[in-house]
Design goal:
alpha+beta; Hypothetical protein af1432; 3 domains; five-stranded antiparallel sheet; four-stranded antiparallel sheet; 9 strands; binds fe (ii) ion
């Protein structure tokens, strides 16, 4: 049941469906619960006079308690990297938490309220619309023991970015992001010793591992996920040459979105740090994809993905010719080797520096990139530094 409330009568815990009356053009990204008085205050400051509250919205007793979509007011379009980074890092944390809760629910055979991941991925797409570099940077901040949580979140972020790059419409981008976020849920049904086994799996173990696609799509169908999303997820391990699973589909039997998720899933798996291996560089991952096209991956899509990610993707680390290390903030669409970076470490001095933004296209003193590096090469605890010094 929907009821309109004056903004002064809105209370914590109410589920806001939409804006009823306002001064100005402020938008909310999705429906959600008012989690604190700060949100009410923020809505008032944005000129919201009244909102429509869904009085019937409550979690059913038989649905496991998942974190609800919080009401996140939408920032204006295209904000700076710094302005978006705070929101993006909260979303990133929330995404991992939500992924964990969903996996736990599935392992206990409990139902999942699909509106929660739906609202989450909508917020994710909005963040990418405002500034894609913030969430893209966060895909580079990973921990070794949370692969499953970060991988699905990263695949969602990368797919939303890829979809935006090739000009898909908002609805398609949202569908892709949700497909990425849900694509590996079936892995929770795979025994730990196989799921986390270092190195290669035996044929027998591989047969068990392959079943994660079957378990995942089965759970999604039970959740009432639209068929098109189930289809995309069901195809994330299919390859154009048919040497793939679960169906061994070939060529045109694999959809456009099925081809996109295959590329992004592979890219993220190659670049990920695992408990038994250090992730490979973005450049190496892109090289592997290019080598395996057109036999396994759609050549046009791989080329577009390479262009979308760029030589030096946002969040990656580079070594400069002045012996300093910097993180790429955003690419230069004209000069791929001259992105805007944040310089934060001195190799010569062996110490961190006060982070400083530098546009390599405008740098007058000849500062340029000499190599792409990964944090482990430099023995840097980049994750800690990033969270403490770069996210504000
Ligand atoms: Fe998978
Ligand atoms: Fe995956």
């Amino acid at each position: 049941m929907l009821k309109t409330f004056d903004i002064d009568d809105v209370e914590e815990g109410m589920f806001v469906d939409s804006i009823a009356k306002q001064q100005g053009k402020f938008k909310i990204t999705s429906r959600g619960r008012v989690t604190s008085f700060a949100v009410i205050k923020q809505l008032k400051q944005k000129g919201i006079l009244a909102v429509v509250v869904d009085m019937s919205k409550q979690i059913k007793a038989d649905v496991v308690e998942l974190e609800e979509p919080a009401l996140i007011p939408e920032l204006p379009e295209e904000v700076s990297f710094e302005a978006e980074l705070g929101v993006a890092s909260k979303l990133h944390l929330k995404g991992k938490h939500l992924q964990k809760t969903m996996l736990e629910s599935i392992s206990k055979n409990l139902p999942i309220d699909i509106t929660i991941p739906e609202a989450f991925t909508k917020n994710l797409v909005s963040s990418i619309d405002r500034n894609p570099n913030a969430l893209m940077c966060l895909t580079k901040i990973r921990e070794k023991d949370t692969y499953l949580l970060e991988h699905s979140l990263n695949v969602a972020i990368l797919l939303a970015n890829f979809g935006t790059y090739i000009d898909l419409d908002e609805e398609q981008i949202q569908e892709l992001a949700l497909s990425g976020f849900l694509h590996d849920l079936g892995k929770i049904k795979i025994p730990e010793e196989i799921l986390h086994k270092p190195g290669f799996l035996t044929d027998q173990e591989m047969t068990v591992m392959k079943d994660h696609v079957y378990y995942g799509t089965k759970v999604l169908i039970e959740m009432g996920i639209p068929n098109s999303i189930v289809k995309t997820i069901g195809q994330h391990h299919e390859r154009l040459d048919g040497y793939s699973y679960p169906e061994g589909l070939r060529g045109d039997e694999i959809t456009h979105f099925g081809r996109m998720i295959a590329i992004v899933d592979t890219y993220d798996a190659i670049t990920a740090d695992r408990c038994y291996k250090v992730g490979r560089s973005s450049r190496k991952a892109l090289q592997i994809l290019l080598q395996d096209a057109p036999e396994k991956y759609d050549e046009v899509l791989v080329t577009q993905f390479v262009q979308c990610i760029g030589i030096f993707p946002a969040g990656s680390l580079v070594k400069l010719n002045n012996q300093k290390i910097a993180m790429v903030l955003r690419q230069n669409p004209v000069h791929a080797t001259k992105p805007v970076v944040k310089v934060f470490y001195s190799v010569r001095g062996g110490h961190y520096l006060e982070p400083k933004e530098l546009d390599l296209a405008a740098a007058s003193n000849g500062v340029k990139i000499v190599d792409a590096v990964i944090a482990s090469d430099l023995k840097l605890d980049f994750n800690k530094y990033f969270n403490e010094s770069i996210v504000v």
